[in-house]
Amino acid sequence: MLKQLILHLKSCRGRKVRVVREHYVRERVPCFSALCQADCDNDGKVLPGDLTHYVVPDVGVVVDYLEILEFRELQGIVFTQTACQAVQHSKGRRQYNRLRNLLKDPRHDCVLFANEFQEYSYCPREKGESQEKWQTRCVYSAAVWYHNHLAGMMDIVMITEDQDAVAQFSSLSSGVYVVSVQDYLSNFWMELHAAHELYNSISQALEEKESEGTEKEYTEHLPSEILEAGIKSGRYIQGVLNVNKHRAQQEALITTQASSNKNTGTFTAALRDVLVYGGKNRNRAVHGDVVVVELLPKSEWRGKVTSLTERQGDEKTGEDEKSKPMPTGYVVGILQRNWRDYVVTFPPREATQSQSRNSQRILAIPWDPRIPKIRISTQQADALQDHRVVVRIDSWESTSLYPNGHSVRVLGRAGELETEIQTILIENFIHVPPFSEAQLKEMPVNSPEKPWKVHPSQVASRRDLRGTHLVFSIDPRGCEDVDDTLSVRTLDGGKLLELGVHIADVTHFVPEGSLTDLEARSRATTYYLADRRYDMLPAVLSADLCSLLGGVDRYAMSVLWELDAHTLEVTKVWYGRTLIRSSYQLHYELAQALLNREDTEVPELAPLSPEEKDAKLAELTQALEMLTHVARHLRAQRDRGGALELEGVEVRAQLDAEKNITALVPRQPLEVHETVAECMIYANHWVARKIQKTFPHQALLRHHPPPRQEFFSQLVDSAKARGFTINTSSNKALADSLDRAVDPEDPLVNRMLRMMATQAMSQALYFSTGAQSQEQYYHYGLALDHYTHFTSPIRRYADMIVHRLLTAAVDLDKGLSPAVALATNKELEETTQHINNKNRAAQRAQKLSIELFQCLYFKERDPQTDPSCVADAAIYAIRDNGVLVFVPQYGVKGPVYLKNRDGEVVTVGQDGRCEWKTGSVKRYSEHISTTCSSGTSTFTLFDHITVRISVQPSRCHADSLNLEIISNKPHKSAESQQPHSQGRSQLVQEVVRQAEEASQQAQERASRGPRLSKEEREFCQSKTPNLYSLLEEIRELALMDVGAAANVFNMNIYAHLNNNHCT
Known about the structure:
Elements (H helix, E strand, L loop, with lengths): L1 E9 L5 E9 L28 E5 L1 H6 L1 H4 L7 E4 H11 L1 H12 L5 E4 L17 H19 L5 E6 L2 H7 L6 E5 H8 L4 H18 L13 H10 L2 E8 L7 E6 L16 E5 L1 H4 L7 E6 L23 H4 L6 E8 L4 E5 L8 E2 L4 E7 L7 E5 L8 E9 L8 E10 L3 H11 L9 H5 L14 H6 L1 E2 L6 E5 L8 E8 L4 E9 L1 H4 L5 H9 L3 E2 L4 E2 L4 H7 L7 E12 L5 E12 L2 E4 H8 L14 H32 L10 E4 L5 E5 L5 H24 L5 E4 L9 H9 L9 H10 L7 H13 L4 E4 L28 H17 L11 H35 L10 E10 L2 E6 L4 E6 L6 E5 L5 E10 L3 E6 L2 E6 L3 E9 L7 E8 L13 H26 L7 H6 L7 H8 L2 H4 L1 H7 L4 H8 L3
Helix pairs in contact: 3-4, 12-25, 19-20, 20-24, 20-31, 21-23, 23-30, 25-26, 28-31
């Protein structure tokens, strides 16, 4: 049926516009209820029929209280088309997408009802009726329609904040109840305290918003039409606001579309970054917002400050060049708000801003220094002092100096370990609740009463390698979740070698679109922190059925190459699903001992007779030697292509009898690490070639673009100061230059140069092949034209996607159609962006957790008397008022001031000891000098100095380490003569000891309460990582988050690869 819809809208200039549209209504519109008796076309999510009622929220509730409707406990929610359109128009694209994602998520019992297209629920707007009244009437009409459509089998509750609507509609229709949100929560969800607290917080924020003043503090933003026209004409510049975390009050950069391509390696525009100086020029923009700026006249351009600030230590290269005047502008509009959850700290009572009868208005201080203070209205100001609280920004009007927001939940008292860990997770958008009961029901059962067995149909459909191949794994000691195994054997009388890489077949157990798959996609990765991990998959998969343990049958995805025994050229490659049984579960040290022909014990051979043991041992050793021979050839191939060796971390986790981590101890790199790494890289490379060839426009690959040359400036200049020449024209030239830049008297010089090279690297990213040209496929660090991630599906969702693509490619080779439709290029590109974002979040969270534990270690020590607080440091960068140093003993980077705020400078006595005197400081390209009445002291790049380490406490932000120079000579204590990682081992061991004491006390308290069931213990998120999981995390850092890799960890790329088996 055709009806005429008349809309009265306002133009951008405030003029009223009358719009007439044709509106089609029909009788059959899906209701998406399991109780439907009218045969509606209910494709997709369906509301269950066993609920006590369905909930239909009013427009105002959806617009203002959507956060409450996101609670999974609230089931049977019917969002009307009217409410969704109101969100789109009043809240913008971000909030509208949030609502759309909620409707798509099968984990939430909510559906969308197109009430304005249903003939009997459609309500034409009456003459003189306000939009708000019409919208409320539309929603009520939809609620009545639902009750009638379901023949009265389900009560309908409409929730609204409009008290007139409650009075008008509450008694009109039997079975349809109209109540306020507060009454609904009080009557139906009395125990859902978090929802009640959130409701109160949002209500207070809305009340305060109505009482805002009228005096303008900022200029109004320009309308979107003017912004878009200005961007097209070139007058305005669009970009993302990035606030300088070291100078948050003054400096922010607008990263333009061109300069943001550091991750893609391309650069197309002349203008790169625009400086926005001061808060007024930001004009209410918050870090991360997409903004539009207008340039100031060149006479008003400024340069970035190059002096040291607190917490500085991991800056990008090219800083000196940017100290010159650069394009400077001011924000004229905001295209997209990227507000998120923020953790804030409530100030002491005397700092509260204002107080009313019911609440106090507090300027809460965000944990992230780049975020402005947020005004919160609360009745719990006194109780929440010195607590970390999660808040959300609601608005920032031009009449307010600060944004307005509301509190969501309280994390705990600032400074407590669990509070700080949760703060790190929230600040990095990491949400990892325990796996739900519905997700765990999808898992296969494997218990002593009902052990899991290989299904006969899988035996028939898979290539069975159990009786033909010697399969073994090589992992860190104590590894439980084994996701890769290897095999190698001779064929055709020794003319051929067969190399095999066998990876856990996770996707067999996790069907695409299942609840477990959706949760894995949401997490995208397993998150590793200093003291715990949060798994991407339930433990029954990650640590059991998908773990390729020794002596048990397991499903695998395999790649088998036939190689010429002399040239090692590939003659044939096979991909497919297999059935394997690993014969040996080796750890790295054992495998290396076998390669070295040392007398060692293999646990699997212990029960055998001496003759059988010798034969089996000889067979295993021969396989390891063949594997090493092949890996050396593969590495040599990549070296010739320009593969890089970068700086990373070298640690090993030490576990107790219960698999709890007790320390990180030094671990020497072994050749077997490189052997395993090369095999995994080889598998990733060949799988990438296969899926890209089969699906040229919808394959998931991973590329590492060449870095921008200006990012190498610090590396080149620093090397030049030491007499070395670094050629950065290609990866091959860079690798050769770094190999030659060796100071025989100081091995740390080459190590620091490699750290600078790491810091200059662009980020390796996932992408869809349909979104990039083939020239963009190249992996700069590994020197490969095609690369992906295939070898760790237990902990990376990208690998699961690649497994599905490979399975589909193999099916097509057999003439079969893929079992599930593949994602389009657009869908896959969206997924890769989500995974890239989650990976960055995971790396940031791990880096912050390491820094947290570093501070916890030093916080309990007196820096004046404890020798562990004194360490050797090497200068790697010069700044206006000091230097940046690297402390190899603890893997710490940070600033060392040579001039303080009182105008005093560091002077050096005859014995090398440093003291502060009035004087001046002068910076040069390769050194910095301080001058005072007693003479001049000079500090040069790569000089070794002695520093004292202490903790700089912060009530509202994260604590940080403070480095103070005490001597211009190297630290020569006996402790510093130990390997550099020993200090980190001591650090973590001590912090873990303290955590264990706290844990023991908690266990004693818990022993007096109810105990967890076996199922709860088995499937809950793990808080203590096992050895394998900790080392697995290391591998991404070299090429995925170079800042974190350079700042936190200290070893070459092979340590990443051998722990993680890929890059």
